[in-house]
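Entry:
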Amino acid sequence: MERRDFLSDVAMYSALCTGLPNAWRVTARPSLAGDPFTLGVASGDPTPTGAMIWTRLAPEPLDPDGGMGGQRTNVAWEVAEDEQFARIVQKGRATSVPELGYSVHADVSGLASDRWYFYRFTLQNGSSPVGRLRTAPAAGVMTPLVFGFVSCNHYEQGYYTAFDHLAREGQLDLVTHLGDYIYETTGVDGRTRKYASSEVRTLDDYRVRYAQTKTDPMLQAAHARAPWVVTWDDHEVDNNYAGLIGENEMESEDQMRVRRAAGYQAWWEHQPVRVPRARNWSDLNITRRVEWGGLAAFHVLDTRQYRSDQPCGDRGQPVPCGDWGDPTHTLMGAQQEKWLDDGMAASRARWQVLANQVRIMPFDDNPGPVAQYYMDSWAGYPAAIDRLMKTIGRHAPNRTVALTGDIHSNWVNTLHTRYDRPDAPTIAAEFVGTSISSGGDGADAFGSWNDGTRAANPQCIWHNGRRGYVMCSVGAEEWATSYRTVPYVSKVGAPIETAARFSIRNGKPGIERT
């Protein structure tokens, strides 16, 4: 008997064992104050034979306990070929427990490759909304891919209209979220809606913050539409944190370890991710690869947990400064750097895709005799950029695409063998996507984008400061990118438009505006 089947059967039959303490009994018929599926459903990390499917029981989502009252609950799940569930192809059970926030993660397998399915979760009290999952193509198969990537959905700073439009895209095989799914702070100026608590620090705090975010129907619709591949950035724990160094300089490493453990556990509890079992929540490893047949390999990065502290602070600074040039400084850590280098070396995929958090292209935002870079980005770590560019140059020049979030604006950048030499050979493309809502309505241009910075940064092809998401249509020979933007997020109902389109050719340097 498989261990997970054994545990599932124990959970089911333990409800019949009167000798167990009440706190450890499992029920399929919990006593609930309302709908337990208020946070929706999600699928993610697809493989050729399956995907992760997720929900979390929370009849009272803004209660730290979700309104479950300590009830250990046996939840059934089903995967079907049709939306009416007349042709069920896989089913099983999972137990939701208070120690894991009543979250449910089912690792579905045994499905056919390269096709769509429907899934749902069921209690005797009722069923969840129906979600869609798509399996990846089999190894080596060149099925075209249409996916969107998003980041930075600050609940207080705007409505999730962009998620509503994303859920309605004509074709959408996959969504990649690059971090800042929640924000740990609160009380920003110009709030369109309010978080239920002040700045979050404990596991209960983070659970409520995720739950409030996930009650949004437009976000739920985008999750239900297609599988997601998710990573984190800083606001899932603390603004601009680096390793165990937080934004508050008085916060000790021990305090940050506890806070990081709470943030990481809550992130896992609310995402459809396939990551190694946590031995210590503060050290949760989320780096992983998602293969789309022979077409694309997504390398999901973590540039927060293992990074060196930002040199000279985490804002814009003229360089060189302090220990900015230290060759040992890293964003990914030595182990992850090797993991990426080995993975790109071994991959036979046509495109190598970096699901990356912060901007790789160094942007000089104060042209003059001395360059000024933003230290929280890759530009604060020149030795790390050099190592990354060497990895790309050795294994996948001009067939590597970096997807980036973080900075609440759109950018299209070429990446070069030398970070400080835009005239050096081009070896990769970077598409930076704006926020879903963070920063409010936005503007056509970022604050430091002007004639001077444009001339000083020829590696930047295009820029825009509105909100939205990015759509990518990927074939064996061509990658097409469309920037989809909304004019406002301060009220609902904004229309969607395509602000710009670009294409790159596999194996050829440069980005073309189309």
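The CA atoms of residues 14 and 20 lie 8 Å apart.
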